[in-house]
Design goal:
single chain; 164 residues; 7-stranded mixed sheet; 4 helices; 29% strand
């Protein structure tokens, strides 16, 4: 089982969503999970992961079977030896599940990312990874379903946490 995860912040609640799917080219989810938790911690520069990580861990704990990989909206690495949300998630899961980060905008760590062009878009997605070779991770994201720049199931998890 594979998973895409995302988090939405509101003044009174934080919603974490997880879309489960079986194959990288799947157009539809196999299921989804939601976790409604307390408001997120205040943003601290360089510590973004502290806002999302607790919520992601709670929603992932409800997964009905072991995960083969997790796709996060954002970067795995913020620089050489500087972990981002994806790397912190990987460590929190005991390095047992590869994590692939998909970012829509270039960050100063974009040099660590593999640019992935999808559909007719002239702008790449920036893919980073831990626990799996970067070229393999980039190919997985390139193969994900959808004609647009952003894969269908990443759009689905984003909508799910925003609309719930």
């Amino acid at each position: 089982m594979l998973a895409c995860v995302d988090v939405d912040y509101r003044p009174d609640v934080t919603v974490a969503a997880c879309v489960l799917f079986r194959g990288w080219e799947d157009a539809t989810e196999a299921g989804h999970l939601l976790e409604r938790g307390p408001p997120a911690e205040a943003y601290e520069p360089g510590q973004f992961y502290r806002r999302e990580l607790p919520h992601l861990l709670r929603v992932l704990a409800a997964a009905p079977e072991p995960l083969e990989a997790i796709v996060v909206d954002g970067y795995v690495w913020l620089g050489h030896d500087k972990p981002g949300l994806g790397a912190h998630l990987y460590e929190s899961l005991g390095r047992s599940v590869p994590v692939i980060g998909v970012a829509k905008t270039a960050f100063h760590s974009a040099s660590l990312a593999a640019p992935v062009y999808r559909g007719q878009s002239q702008r790449p997605l920036f893919v980073t990874a831990v626990g799996v070779d970067l070229s393999v991770a980039a190919e997985h994201i390139r193969r994900m379903h959808g004609d647009s720049r952003k894969p269908t199931l990443l759009t689905r998890v984003d909508r799910l946490c925003r609309d719930s």
